[in-house]
Amino acid sequence: TLVNTGVIPIQVLDNASGAEVYGFEFDAVYYPVDNLLLNVTGAFQHSELVDFVSGAGADFSGNKIALTPDASVTALARYDYNLANLGDLYIQGSVAYRSSVFFSTENNPLLEQDGYALVNARVGFAHSSDRWELAVFGKNLTDEAYVTYAGDLSDFGFMQRYIGMPRIWGVELAINF
């Protein structure tokens, strides 16, 4: 925890004496037709600090545990087309959703990332020898703006934020040896 003293922020390692975490995870795979894979994975959880008074005297009991989304779900579809002895041509798309998270034990709304979804796509060719693969890909196709980490440095006049990757297009050659 970064404690703001009004003069210089101090990094403090605090331990919560009680927390409540429960939920479930799932993974489902379905092949509705030959060569078409549908996959959904996810986790739903509840996390709460139930008994946490920091060394500085702040009571964080009832707050969400930092960096724990209530939900994260990924859905993927992939179609493979076999090109005889050459290999497989494939097209793949995915959507990954993550619900809101706090980046601080204080649950400061200035250090919160709202829920967001990332859309990715990939078209490629995998050689039958499994020695190499060539693909064209796009990540974060909707160019969703999101934060991967945030910290309170208000004693210095700002909040620290690490911004997630913007939309990216690329070509990838993978060689296995």
Explain what the structure shows.
- There is one protein chain.
- The protein is mainly beta and 177 residues long.
- It has one domain.
- The protein has strands at 2-3, 10-11, 18-30, 36-51, 71-82, 87-98, 101-102, 112-113, 116-127, 132-139, 147-153, 158-163, 168-175.
- Strands 3-4-5-6-9-10-13 form a seven-stranded antiparallel β-sheet, with no helix packed on it. Strands 1-2 form a two-stranded antiparallel sheet. It has a two-stranded antiparallel sheet with strand order 7-8.
- The radius of gyration is 22 Å and the shape is elongated.
- It starts with a strand and ends with a strand.
Keywords:
177 residues; mainly beta; 7-stranded antiparallel beta sheet; two-stranded antiparallel ribbon; 58% strand; elongated
Question: Strands, helices and their partners?
Answer:
Blueprint: E1 2-3, E2 10-11, E3 18-30, E4 36-51, E5 71-82, E6 87-98, E7 101-102, E8 112-113, E9 116-127, E10 132-139, E11 147-153, E12 158-163, E13 168-175
Antiparallel strand pairs: 1-2, 3-4, 4-5, 5-6, 6-9, 7-8, 9-10, 10-13, 11-12
